């Protein structure tokens, strides 16, 4: 009887403990944080999430996305980037291939095509298909309450063909030799009209439009579409004007170096992304990545941030899903994007292991079943948020390339800051490799699989093709 009572007490204590943990987890998830404008320190351990509101849920609304914002905390998300939320132009709206919506005769078929987010009809209004202005305000407040920041996708290079500025301010637009407005030269963006930044009045109006989103919706910055196609001088002017209102986070869809000097905090790591695609092919010499990192160190300043990604809206819709491009190596390259200097990006659906291309001009939706990719992102996000060795902002952790017994296929690095150390070793070949890593020693813990071991520099590590290990070190 005594054993039974003791056992019962133990079981009761266990359930009580589990309930406490559960309640603590729920409390943590529901915890409201005091909002303060974004600062440089917030960028050091941030993960950024690209929210495709139209495709995020069957409803395609702000409200459906807002419900899941607390879930994104589990992935370490600190910055939410909303794809354009403006009304979409109807004139010259694209459908598929070279067809415009007006070319499609069947009215039912025509209704399917919702147009490009990047063909803006009005810079100061909300697309009613996504919800109301109050719905958007609630989304941003919910993000703020959860310790996150929201940046808005801004399309400054061009507008849609029925943007109100076309009638009100025709001098804002580029004209061809016949004096007619034109789409951006050298592109197939025929659903848009090119803006002419030789007109300085445009600078004032565009900046005022951006400012209205700060004043009315309290956004925390902007992701600026094809930023390199707009004069850097405009961005310098606009950012200075906007930051007189509040501190902002500015992301350029570009690697153009002079954009970082004054206007932008972060740019796209396009070159790194294309090299990551190459790394999955099995015949890529890892030294090419080393040369790339050396170029970055030479060409960028220490406080320049690059956004690392294995997918985004363009890559997914036009170049293929992660599975199409990287196959079984996708999760290896996901870890790669978190371990190198910079800020990792998650694109809507990626967290659920989405293995198809989202339609760009039509309604689609992402999967919502958590699995292997979610679990891995959760662990990577926790590391990114809490281990200073992965700081990747304006005061990043150090990056040291480690020698190995096979430097052609094994990539090994050490990241370190404030006493935190992370080792990342990955076999970027199609062959199994047993390797020694110079400098790896001490009591190491596998940050993904768990378990600790005392390791000596001369010991071997065994890696399957595209196998990886992330080790933390006890202080």
TrEMBL record:
Any Gene Ontology biological process: carbohydrate metabolic process
Domain of life: Bacteria
Annotated Glycosyl hydrolase family 13 catalytic domain residues: 9-384
Taxonomy of the source species: Bacteria, Pseudomonadati, Bacteroidota, Flavobacteriia, Flavobacteriales
UniProt-listed CDD domains: AmyAc_arch_bac_AmyA
Pfam families: Alpha-amylase
The name this protein goes by in its record: Alpha amylase catalytic subunit
UniProt xrefs under SUPFAM superfamilies: (Trans)glycosidases, Glycosyl hydrolase domain
Gene3D superfamilies the UniProt entry points to: Glycosidases (3.20.20.80)
SMART domains from the UniProt entry: Aamy
InterPro entries recorded: GH, GH13_cat_dom
């Amino acid at each position: 009887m005594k054993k039974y009572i003791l056992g019962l007490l133990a079981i009761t204590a266990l359930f009580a403990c589990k309930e406490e943990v559960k309640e603590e987890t729920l409390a943590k998830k529901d915890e409201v944080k005091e909002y303060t404008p974004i600062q440089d320190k917030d960028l050091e351990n941030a993960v950024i999430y690209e929210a495709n509101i139209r495709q995020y849920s069957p409803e395609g609304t702000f409200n459906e996305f807002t419900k899941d914002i607390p879930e994104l905390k589990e992935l370490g998300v600190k910055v939410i980037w909303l794809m354009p939320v403006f009304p979409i132009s109807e004139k010259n709206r694209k459908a598929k291939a070279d067809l415009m919506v007006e070319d499609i005769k069947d009215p039912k078929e025509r209704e399917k095509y919702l147009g490009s987010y990047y063909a803006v009809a009005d810079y100061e209004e909300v697309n009613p298909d996504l919800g109301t202005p109050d719905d958007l305000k609630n989304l941003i407040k919910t993000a703020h309450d959860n310790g996150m920041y929201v940046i808005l996708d801004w399309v400054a290079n061009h507008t849609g063909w029925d943007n109100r500025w076309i009638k009100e301010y025709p001098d804002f637009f580029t004209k061809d030799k016949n004096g007619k407005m034109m789409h951006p030269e050298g592109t197939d963006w025929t659903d848009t009209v090119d803006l002419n930044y030789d007109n300085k009045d445009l600078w004032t109006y565009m900046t005022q439009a951006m400012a209205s989103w700060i004043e009315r919706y309290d956004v925390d910055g902007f992701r600026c579409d094809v930023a390199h196609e707009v004069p850097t001088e405009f961005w310098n002017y606009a950012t200075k004007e906007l930051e007189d209102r509040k501190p902002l986070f500015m992301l350029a869809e570009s690697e153009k170096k002079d954009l970082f000097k004054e206007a932008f905090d972060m740019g796209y790591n396009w070159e790194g992304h294309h090299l990551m695609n190459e790394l999955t092919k099995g015949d890529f010499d890892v030294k090419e990545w080393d040369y790339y990192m050396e170029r970055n160190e030479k060409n960028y300043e220490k406080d320049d941030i690059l956004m690392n990604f294995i997918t985004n809206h363009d890559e997914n819709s036009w170049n293929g899903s992660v599975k199409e491009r990287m196959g079984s190596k996708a999760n290896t390259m996901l870890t790669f994007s978190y371990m190198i200097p910079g800020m990792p990006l998650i694109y809507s659906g990626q967290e659920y292991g989405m293995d198809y291309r989202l339609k760009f001009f039509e309604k689609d939706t992402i999967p919502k079943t958590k699995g292997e990719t979610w679990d891995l992102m959760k662990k990577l996000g926790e590391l990114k948020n809490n281990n200073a060795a992965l700081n990747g902002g304006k005061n990043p952790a150090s990056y040291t390339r480690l020698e190995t017994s096979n430097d052609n296929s094994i990539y090994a690095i050490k990241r370190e800051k404030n006493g935190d150390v992370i080792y990342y070793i990955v076999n970027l070949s199609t062959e199994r490799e047993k390797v020694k890593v110079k400098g790896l020693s001490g009591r190491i813990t596998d940050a993904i699989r768990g378990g600790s071991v005392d390791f000596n520099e001369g010991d071997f590590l065994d890696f399957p093709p595209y196998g990886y290990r992330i080790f933390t070190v006890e202080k």
